[in-house]
Design a protein that fits this description.
With 485 residues, the protein is α+β, with helices and mostly antiparallel strands. It is 39% helix and 24% strand. Strands 5, 6, 7, 8, 10 and 11 form a six-stranded mixed beta sheet that branches. Strands 2-3-4-9 form a four-stranded antiparallel beta sheet, with no helix packed on it. A hairpin with a 2-residue loop joins strand 3 and strand 4. Helix 4 packs antiparallel against helix 5, helix 12 runs antiparallel to helix 13 and helix 14 runs antiparallel to helix 15. The longest helix is centred in the middle third of the chain and has 23 residues. It is elongated, with a radius of gyration of 41 Å. The two termini are 32 Å apart.
Length: 485
Amino acid sequence: MKKLYLIYILTLLALPVAAQSFMEGTGEVRNLDIKRNGKDVTINMDIDISNLKVGADETVILTPMIEKGDKSLELPAVEVMGRRAWLYFLRNGENTATENPFYAERKAKRAERKAGVKQSVPYSTDLNFEEWMRGATVKMKEGSCGCDPQVIALGEDNVGNFHNEIYNPQYVLSYIEPDPEPIKVREKSLTAYINFYVDKYNIVEKYKNNEGELAAMIKSIKDVDNDKDLTISSITIEGWASPEATQQHNQVLSQNRANSLANYVSEKTGIERSHIEAIGRGEDWAGLKREVEATPMLLDQKKVLAIIDREDLTQDQKDKMLEDLIPPTIYQRLMNELYPRLRRNDYRIEYNVRNFNLEEARALVDSDPEKLSVSEIYKVAGSYERGSKEYNHALEVAAKTYPKNVAAAVNQAAILLAQNDYDGALDMLQKSQTDDARIQAIAGNIYIAKGDQAKAREAWTKAAAQGNADAKKNLEELDKHLKSL
């Protein structure tokens, strides 16, 4: 998969600190630089001792240290010796004033006392990072000794801060190429409310509202059949009945009425009857439940719903219990208002759409995008510069036309994410296949952009469990970031 863009770029902090004085201004730390790489920390500085006053027999001990609250760590010391102290050390090879074994790598430096001469001690040390060091202060601890090796504490001064390096995660987001659709299968699902005489199944055009319903049905089929880009593969008609009378009677009646309508459609459209399937569905109890729930003013609505939901009763038994409800006006209202809405014929027109070249597809993107596959719309987008107005418009059309298509939803959500329209991006994903790993993966990117790390982790975890590589990478990046805080 192609990488669409990166949300964050990894940066390393290496912040030099301005010069800081110590020893009442006679010493100075320059170029303090603290770098961290995981658990390894390197501290570099230049210790300017040009103005440091050191007696001939004196040794000034400068000990850099890290301190925060009640925790501290002394670093290798620098011993600045007067002339006679330095010569004595060279001639006798005795231990220097500091005996802490941590000072094993120290180098003693002699102060140059010649007026006007600059002298600086380069300093570098490595240490292991510990959590308490975040935001700690770097200090210079000062001590002195003469002939007596006992160190005299002179004080300490702040010379800088131990910087808290935060790992900036590099979250990834992949562009998804839509799957090709060699044969474009489409369908239209509609409903016709055809009225029949009681217990009859012959079509009567002039009966009640049949003329308008039949005309609309035939027109919807002819519109598809007459379109040169479309080829009807099949038509399915499903007949439904209301619950009065027996289940067996209604099953046969719904089948006969569906057959009659199929014959009528074949006659009026010229479509072969063998291409039209007629199915009798019988009594529509699910539809009755929807109608009752949509009628809150129905007397004893909860009691009616309880009867409909009972699984231990046959359909005939349910109908009898509804008929016996007191007062009788309950059943009369069901019969007069709700049952007629159940007597209908659902029909589905299945057809194939021919493939289009680029120029044809461009013309259809706005006029009739449903004729195009997602991949055809993407070819149109690809003919424009990525990120251009035309490119983004084509991807938007693909997502609106095929909201459940994962590629279309993910790529459009990525565009909205780049525009900081986080809620719009999430709404786009909700219309698609929300359990798909690719949907969950980009949802994590959106949540992280919103600042909701908990929801981002939840989404990425679900996607990673399905093997999504982007989500796995982003979880690792999130963990690195959180550990660096």
